[in-house]
Amino acid sequence: MSSKVAVLVAGSWGTALASVLASNHPNVVIWSRNEEQVQEINLKHMNSRYLPKVKLPESLKATSNLEEAVKDAMAVVIVAPSAAMREVAHAIKPYWHKDMLIIHATKGFETETLKRMSSVIAEELGCNEGDMVVLSGPSHAEEVVRRCPTTVVVASLNDNAAAAAQKLFINADFRVYTNRDMVGVELAGALKNIIALGAGMSDGLGFGDNAKAALLTRGLAEITRIGVEMGANPLTFSGLAGIGDLVVTATSRHSRNWRAGSMLGEGMKLEEVLSSMGMVVEGIRTTKAAFSIAQKYNVQMPIADQLYHVLFENMNPRTAVEALMGRLPKTEMETMTLETWEQWHS
């Protein structure tokens, strides 16, 4: 089998992961539709639009030809935006084979169907969802590409696939753990973006550390609540994909979601925020999906609900905070039904 590893697409996170892989393997190809970007990676070893002032490994090759990137690859790492995931998965179907390791590192939902990314890919490729791998965890592209110490998790129901992905990525700067809870890892990675938006909004409003600490804590409870309802292991949310990714995304200026929330808190309109960012802010689409998911599963997600009202119904951010603070008194710990208890301990 070929030793080629393909990475789709050449955004900031895809480029950072391709850089890690190229440090480990001699034959790594990254795909982009943008021919100018391809030439810059190949000739200057840079991707200045997404990761300015960073040199990429000279062995990393780029192409705008999808067949050239994917055909006969032993592994394909898909890092397309959630809105484009189905299109990209459909496009690689002619080159997919049963021995090809499929890894995705996209944190979001398909808003039209409310499906996780692994479900979308599996539908398009006609493969077993449990055989693919999800990569997630606290990992800013800007730090990964500079080889700052980073730790992530790869999740799959197929232990061999998870071990293969772990071996593919792990090195002295990039530590990789395995996990069998695909659902939990995917949900944690997607839903924490909503809380990161809220944390940025809180900072933009000048509410301070107390408010942000409460937001992160109650946000994690919210994520865990819906996660368990959807079949996840609650322990996953106290791990790298859960609290680890939540903290890094909700507290760092590297975070697109935090920056977008901060601008909203400072009074900018959503259209202005998206225009100034120039990159995908997954938390915005995820908030829309989570609003529908909470209704589908009849689970309370008050933070996601209020952010939905701010993003899509023009609610003033201060009004949203007042609504959260004015909720009826509750106990902090969740009351579990027998069914939920058995699910947690099965």
TrEMBL record:
Q: Where in the cell is it found?
A: Cytoplasm
Lineage, top-rank taxon, reads: Bacteria
Which pathway does UniProt place it in?
A: Membrane lipid metabolism; glycerophospholipid metabolism
What GO terms are given for molecular function?
glycerol-3-phosphate dehydrogenase (NAD+) activity; glycerol-3-phosphate dehydrogenase (NADP+) activity; NAD binding
Q: Where is the active site?
A: 192
Q: Name one Pfam family in it.
A: NAD_Gly3P_dh_N
The reaction(s) annotated as catalysed by this protein in its Swiss-Prot or TrEMBL entry are: sn-glycerol 3-phosphate + NAD(+) = dihydroxyacetone phosphate + NADH + H(+); sn-glycerol 3-phosphate + NADP(+) = dihydroxyacetone phosphate + NADPH + H(+)
Where would one find the signal peptide in this protein? 1-18
For this record, an example GO cellular component is:
cytosol
Protein residues bound to NADPH:
12-13, 33, 50, 107, 141, 256, 280, 282
GO biological processes: carbohydrate metabolic process; glycerol-3-phosphate biosynthetic process; glycerol-3-phosphate catabolic process; glycerophospholipid metabolic process; phospholipid biosynthetic process
Report the enzyme's class at the first EC level.
oxidoreductase
InterPro entries found in the cross-reference section: 6-PGluconate_DH-like_C_sf, 6PGD_dom2, G3P_DH_NAD-dep, G3P_DH_NAD-dep_C, G3P_DH_NAD-dep_N, NAD(P)-bd_dom_sf
Q: Would you identify the family this protein belongs to, as annotated?
A: Belongs to the NAD-dependent glycerol-3-phosphate dehydrogenase family.
Q: Which PANTHER family match?
A: GLYCEROL-3-PHOSPHATE DEHYDROGENASE, GLYCEROL-3-PHOSPHATE DEHYDROGENASE [NAD(+)] 2, CHLOROPLASTIC
Biological role stated in the UniProt entry: Catalyzes the reduction of the glycolytic intermediate dihydroxyacetone phosphate (DHAP) to sn-glycerol 3-phosphate (G3P), the key precursor for phospholipid synthesis.
**Name of the protein described by the UniProt record:** Glycerol-3-phosphate dehydrogenase [NAD(P)+]
In its UniProt entry, the species of origin is given as Paenibacillus pini JCM 16418
